[in-house]
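Researcher: If convenient, please comment on what follows.
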Amino acid sequence: MKKLLACSLLLGLFACTQNVEDPSNLESIEESSTTENISQMSIHLFDLPDGISEEEYIADIEKLNSFFIASGYGKNYTVLKVADDNEADEYRYALVSSYPSAEAYAASHNQGPEYDAYMDEIQSKYQAIFDTEIYRKVFTIS
């Protein structure tokens, strides 16, 4: 059942290209970005750890996005969640990022010591997510 849910969510995220039109399926908890010229995406399916609110998580992702914006890459990460009335009890959140090329992916994640230090903080704070998430790096096939 977990795999079916994960596959359904992955396909749904890719099909809607980060723009949620039907709030009965997913509701955006952060402003979506445009998705033209995507060759790859990173998709993380997870649940928030106890003691971490949506607001706190979003604030941390917004700070992470600030590195990409300051470097000229624009907003990188979008946070999504299943609708509150959805019966899924696991993997209710998704963190999605998209890139026009593998080179852009590599360059955007090579931002220097301040970015690396913040990523160390994120890794430590959200280790519970990293330990249990479903992570996929997917590529355009058309």
User: Anything to note?
Assistant: The two ends are 28 Å apart (CA to CA).
